[in-house]
């Protein structure tokens, strides 16, 4: 078997076309959706992701503002900036790029973003609402993954989803979203015993670990759907996933590439959340 690739890039392009119509509708009513991105420090990978987000905003008709703060910024200064953006009517979404420098508490920053502008879906109010199935901003990477699976009309209900990774921004919420879709969900992590045999039970395997080429064909049930969330930079500076692409492609039914897979859909869901926020707050 050779897996069919799920191109996040193509799906993202289709979704962004639809979203352009939504921003036009808003603009006819005098509303331009606005996203503010705050980047603290000079990490080159973070800079490159932020550039991608801004480019995507431009293409979709979303106004974006970038605040580049020096690495020495204090927590209080950052919280003041968040407060200012919380109060700015033309800003519908606030994204503080993670990770933050060690002297700043990510928890304190996230807690102080207005939940109705938290387009990352990281605020505890939004996390709680997601957990009990209430309307909220869904976290972008997990929501993008569900969209990718649905785009191929892959059945989710009743199927076994195994998530490798338990971060607050990908692993935990992606399992919750698949549970909300009536899947049976298992989490694996660094302390899991015999991870390969658990992963081999997955109908849909989601790998969100951050370790280059960790998952080979021994983790895959023939015909499984494999979603690679890894964004690792190798020694040559290329972006690579957590999955051994060439060998897993020989056993899986569907596989997401890196780059061109989950990443572009993460950005697309951010645009989606920002537009939804503008509709909710200003229409
Ligand atoms: N508050 C916050 N929200 C985030 O959503 C967030 C964050 N912090 N910190 C960092 C991670 C990482 N992330 C990516 C988004 C898009 C691509 C993406 O578009 N990747 C392209 C390639 C980009 C390239 O080549 O550099 C692709 O996979 O095809 C990657 C990574 C969002 N993150
Ligand atoms: Mg920190």
UniProtKB/TrEMBL annotation:
It catalyses: (6R)-5,10-methenyltetrahydrofolate + H2O = (6R)-10-formyltetrahydrofolate + H(+); (6R)-5,10-methylene-5,6,7,8-tetrahydrofolate + NADP(+) = (6R)-5,10-methenyltetrahydrofolate + NADPH. NADP(+) binds at residues 165-167, 231. One of its GO terms (cellular component) is cytosol. Residues 6-120 form the Tetrahydrofolate dehydrogenase/cyclohydrolase catalytic domain. InterPro entries: Aminoacid_DH-like_N_sf, NAD(P)-bd_dom_sf, THF_DH/CycHdrlase, THF_DH/CycHdrlase_cat_dom, THF_DH/CycHdrlase_CS, THF_DH/CycHdrlase_NAD-bd_dom. GO terms for biological process: L-histidine biosynthetic process; methionine biosynthetic process; purine nucleotide biosynthetic process; tetrahydrofolate interconversion. Pathway: One-carbon metabolism; tetrahydrofolate interconversion. Keywords: Amino-acid biosynthesis, Histidine biosynthesis, Hydrolase, Methionine biosynthesis, Multifunctional enzyme, NADP, One-carbon metabolism, Oxidoreductase, Purine biosynthesis. Residues 139-280 form the Tetrahydrofolate dehydrogenase/cyclohydrolase NAD(P)-binding domain. One of its GO terms (molecular function) is methylenetetrahydrofolate dehydrogenase (NADP+) activity. Signal peptide: none annotated. Its EC number is 1.5.1.5, 3.5.4.9. SUPFAM superfamilies: Aminoacid dehydrogenase-like, N-terminal domain, NAD(P)-binding Rossmann-fold domains. PANTHER family: C-1-TETRAHYDROFOLATE SYNTHASE, CYTOPLASMIC, C-1-TETRAHYDROFOLATE SYNTHASE, CYTOPLASMIC-RELATED. Homodimer. Catalyzes the oxidation of 5,10-methylenetetrahydrofolate to 5,10-methenyltetrahydrofolate and then the hydrolysis of 5,10-methenyltetrahydrofolate to 10-formyltetrahydrofolate. Belongs to the tetrahydrofolate dehydrogenase/cyclohydrolase family. This is Bifunctional protein FolD. The gene is folD.
């Amino acid at each position: 078997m050779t897996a069919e690739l799920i191109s996040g890039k193509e799906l993202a392009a289709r979704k962004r076309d639809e979203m352009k119509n939504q921003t036009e509708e808003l603009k006819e009513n005098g509303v331009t959706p606005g996203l503010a991105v705050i980047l603290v420090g000079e990490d080159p990978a973070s800079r490159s992701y932020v550039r991608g987000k801004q480019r995507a905003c431009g293409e979709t008709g979303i106004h974006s503002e970038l605040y580049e703060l020096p690495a020495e910024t204090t927590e209080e200064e950052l919280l003041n900036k968040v407060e200012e953006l919380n109060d700015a009517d033309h800003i519908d979404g606030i994204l503080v790029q993670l990770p933050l420098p060690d002297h700043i508490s990510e928890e304190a920053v996230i807690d102080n973003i207005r939940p109705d502008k938290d387009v990352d879906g990281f605020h505890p109010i939004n996390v709680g609402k997601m957990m009990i199935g209430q309307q909220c901003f869904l976290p972008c990477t997990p929501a993008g993954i569900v969209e990718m699976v649905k785009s191929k009309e892959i059945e989710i209900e009743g199927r076994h989803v195994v998530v490798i990774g338990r971060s607050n921004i990908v692993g935990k919420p992606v399992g919750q979203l698949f549970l909300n879709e009536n899947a049976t969900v298992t989490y694996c992590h660094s302390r899991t015993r015999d991870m390969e045999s658990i992963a081999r039970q997955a109908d849909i395997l989601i790998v969100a670990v951050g370790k280059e080429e960790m998952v080979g064909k021994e983790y895959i049930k023939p015909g499984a759907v494999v979603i690679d969330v890894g964004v690792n930079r190798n020694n040559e500076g290329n972006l690579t996933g957590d999955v051994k692409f060439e060998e897993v492609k020989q056993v899986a039914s569907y596989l997401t590439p890196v780059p061109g897979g989950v990443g572009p859909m993460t950005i697309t869901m951010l645009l989606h959340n920002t537009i939804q926020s503008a509709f909710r707050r200003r229409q």
